[in-house]
Amino acid sequence: MGLVGRRRGVPGGAVVFATAVALLQIVFLVHPTSAQQSNGAPRVVPAEGYCSMYGICANRSDGKVLNCVNATKAVKPDTLFSTRIQSLCPTITGDVCCTVDQFDTLHQQVQQAVPFLVGCPACLRNFLNLFCEMSCSPNQSLFINVTSAKQVDNITTVDGIDYYITSNYGEELYNSCKEVKFGTLNTRAMDFLGGGAKTYKEWFAFLGRQANPNEPGSPYLITYRPDLSDSSGVKPLNTTVYSCGDPSLGCSCGDCPSSSVCMGSLLPQSKTETSCSVKMGSLKAECLDFSLVVVYIVFLCAILLWGLLYRTRGRTGFPSQTKPPKNADDKSNNNGNVPENSAQVPKAASSSIVQTYMSTFFRRHGVFVTRHPLLVLCASLLVPILLCIGLIRFKVETRPEKLWVSPGSQTAYEKQYFDSHLAPFYRIEQLVLATSASDQLEAPTIVNDNNFKLLFQIQKKIDDLRANYSGSTVSLADICLKPLSTDCATQSVLQYFQLDPKKHDDLGIDHAKFCFEHYSSEETCLSTFQSPIDPSTILGGFPGSNFTEASAFVITYPVNNKVETTGQENAKAMAWERAYINLVKEEILPMVLAQNLTLSFSSESSIKDELNRESTADAITIVISYIVMFAYISFTLGDRPSRLWALFVSSKVLLGLSGVVLVMLSVLGSMGFFSAVGVKSTLIIMEVIPFLVLAVGVDNMCILVHAVKRQPDGIVLEERISNALVEVGPSITLASLAEVLAFSVSAINPMPATRAFSMFAAMAVLLDFVLQVTAFVALIVYDFRRAEDGRIDCVPCARLKSSTVAGDNGGHQRLHFVARYMKDVHGPILGYRPVKFIVIAVFVGLAFASIAMSTRLQPGLEQKIVLPRDSYLQGYFDDLEKYMKVGPPLYFVVKNFNYSSASENTNQICSINQCNSNSLLNEIARQSLSPETSYIAKPAASWLDDFLIWMSPEAFGCCRKFVNGNYCPPDDQPPCCQLDQDSGSCSSNGACNNCTTCFLHSDLHNGRPSTTQFREKLPWFLDALPSSDCSKGGKGAYSTSLDHSGYENGIIQASAFRTYHTPLNKQTDYVNSLRAARDFSSQMSKDLQMEIFPYSVFHIFFEQYLSVWKTAIMNICVCLGAVFVVCFVVTSSLWASAIILIVLAMIVLDLMVCLSLSCPICTTTSDYMYFQIHSN
């Protein structure tokens, strides 16, 4: 996230043009301001028609020109010179106080500021007037006083001036420019032309500072004085200042939000949700909570009234419909082995045709299995074994976008469109180096020399890192993002020293602190890839804007990303990332800990690798759980003989082991079947379904074995098996069929992971049920025959003496403790009417409370929950939440932008003058004014605005052409200047003296290019390198902001405008920001009749949460409905089916509350899983 700001539209263009910015602000100041107080400067008496300085007398050692101290009378220019002055300075008429050379210098310098301000004509005009008046006004002496002069080659030159202005003039000038955007870097032009000034005094102080030799800035000091201390005849400058809302020089709403036509967004304001509440005295309750309490009280009163009426009827002689519970001595004809309630089940279902048929089927099935156990066992095992062959094609899907986003989802389409038409979002490798707090003290600042030196050591290790890929080595330079195809766009505080430790040694820590405040305006603070580095993206843990108190360094390495089709496109980057993680763990982390600092780190492939590691570790957990369940089954299924030796016969270890194997076969068979048909498995399937099927399988196995053991001993095994299946077979079938059907209908969910989970689970439960009523019953037959023969469990070849076994088999087995408790205690207690009332009241109350609390569930899936607890990413996510001060980038993508003259699309999108007040970019700027609801932090960077400005005749240093019509670069770029390889400076060589602007005002229609002009100049703009003379070049800055393939027909298929989200620290922030961006795009698409959609790298992972409640409720209702239908069909009892439905619904509600107490509502998968378990 740290380099979120430097992606599309920033690294390249912003880079160089930002340099231009810094240069231009200072160069154009050459005329107007600067100087140190020096020895005597002749005092000029203020008078109309007189100058304070006139002509150029000398040059500084760095080549900057110096004006002459000359109190001469203003000079009348010739007609040509007067016309030229009028073209730039329309307020200057008649005589002037500047020579042709001075005017040419002025013209050359201001051209660097024009691209920043031309989008707001009022600001540009006011800004130019400030320097036109200072340079050429005929009344210069009235408001300019030379306060310092120095001798250069025996000539007196200006070294410092006072520039008198009125406070009102300064305030209005500042107000007209303070909101003008600098779109390429999503910031204000004032950050570059005014050093981020917050008042006009700060702005003028910035403009008037004197630059040191070989540094950009004014060669002399200019002191702006808004107040007069004497009455010496000085008349402060107070010329007309145009408001940015002036209709004749109107600025866009993004540059002038205070304009009357821009007040308030034309979009409907996002409504803040106001919760309904009821207040009773000092108590305040939500309307839903209050309603549930009222309904619950009414329900209790109804139950009490019914109980009283029922009791009254009983006293008046009406027969009671409920008999008191029978005591424990009431036995059935099975000698006390079958509880009375078990004998009543068949009676309740005796009228059901389905259940009668099922009983008949299971009786015959039991007889057949008992007579042919080997045949049944082999035939039943053959099916899952054959299905397991499909595991040859077993594959695991680990790509998040393939797991949680359906192929037809909106975000999946938007991501595919963005990646294919523009470029995939870059890969992020990140380090967070921080100080740690101790003894309740705040963490100390990390900004000191020792930590910088440590950071340089870390940087060197990463630069020297080489990874092996297919026999070749890969370094960071091979894969990193290079906006201008030269240097990596590394985001680090070391960029203030251009990653050079020698510069750090020379300049010291104070230079970094200086750059924290002047990163956008100082050339010495620019990065190696020539872009300003915002300190908020490379520092963390600082209060407000006090960067020097930062407690963390955030270092980000952006790496090129590619669209994956075969899975090998990013293999080289992934190889380097794994080597990078190993380097950090083995070498860098010990270095950091030795300095009493903390370090967290991450790579683009870290999450995937850590999830794979967790799945491997979970395999051990699964094995252990199966062993534990095997021991539990063996203990539960076995008898408790009175003699120790008989335990070897009565135990069921081999039977329990066989049952666990059957469960494993059902899981593997399910995986094999779906693998054979091409469905990929997921980590959830591998980690959850084995436990799910094991739980269901163990339950059914216990039921079957105990049902057989409850049968009278006097009957043959064949009858015991058939009677047991008749007794429990329908209930097992009902439960299993309900589970299979519930999972099957859950597969309608479009989320791939949930759909795959439901399909695998349904098949596994179905196979488990089939194996239980076939193979496991056959195994029961073999086990009981073994026990009857006195053979030892697990060693059936050995046999105990018949006397030992027979002695223990005398008499009937007593009921287990739990069974006795249920029969003798739990059941009778629940039979009392007051107890029934209390139980119903308590659980209905819990259900109502669950309804109220379920509304407080928050959507989202915390990343830390799904990762191993010992993962290095746990600390990384903690640090991101703690230190990051910037949000992820947000792109608004316009499809099929029609730039032809006949279309209004251009004015519907742009945000400079003459653009529609409700244009897309103007509305984005308005939304950024309310970030708490829009989650938009800044106005958007716009290639369209910069392109229109670049083409404008006012930006005379940008779009230029040679006499032959070819593109002519700015004067500070080759071939217009000669580049000095040693100093890096470029001196003019006159090669471009004949270059002219691409267009005159008359060539444009209302300031807009024609279709042909747009089509011809767009490639020039995208290939233009930003520099001091023209900061609006699009190379690097906008290389991937539009799809210009096939643009010749007047349509640009995809065009992206970048802004930023506010910092998103919680899962709800991500969900709400996506919802807000979608709502905004939808409304803009409707208003502008254009197709617009938002895109951010995280959108694809959070789309499901926009409708998670709707999806969850729909699927839970469908599952409950499926269970109800199965129950009704099997039992033919509407009342019993309704009771089951109500109980299951209450279980789901209680489960949701349990989830809310531990974690957010992750996905409906968890609901489905637990619902299936409890539905049994």
TrEMBL record:
Region of interest (Disordered), ranges:
318-346
**Cellular component GO terms, alphabetical:** endomembrane system; membrane
**Residue ranges with Polar residues bias:** 333-346
Just give the chief location class.
Answer: membrane
Q: Where is it located?
A: Endomembrane system
Query: Which controlled-vocabulary keywords does the entry list?
Result: Cholesterol metabolism, Disulfide bond, Glycoprotein, Lipid metabolism, Lipid transport, Membrane, Signal, Steroid metabolism, Sterol metabolism, Transmembrane, Transmembrane helix, Transport
Q: Which residues form the SSD domain?
A: 618-782
An example molecular function term from Gene Ontology annotations: sterol binding
Q: How does it sit in the membrane?
A: Multi-pass membrane protein
Question: Which InterPro entries does the entry link to?
Answer: HMGCR/SNAP/NPC1-like_SSD, NPC1-like, NPC1_MLD, NPC1_N, SSD
Please give the family membership noted in the entry.
Belongs to the patched family.
Mark the transmembrane ranges: 12-30, 287-309, 374-394, 616-635, 655-676, 688-708, 728-748, 760-782, 837-855, 1112-1132, 1138-1162
Say if the entry is tagged with keyword Glycoprotein: yes
Query: Does the keyword Disulfide bond belong to this entry?
Result: yes
Query: One of this protein's Pfam families, by short name?
Result: NPC1_MLD
Q: Report the record's Gene Ontology biological process terms.
A: cholesterol metabolic process; sterol transport
Name of the featured protein:
SSD domain-containing protein
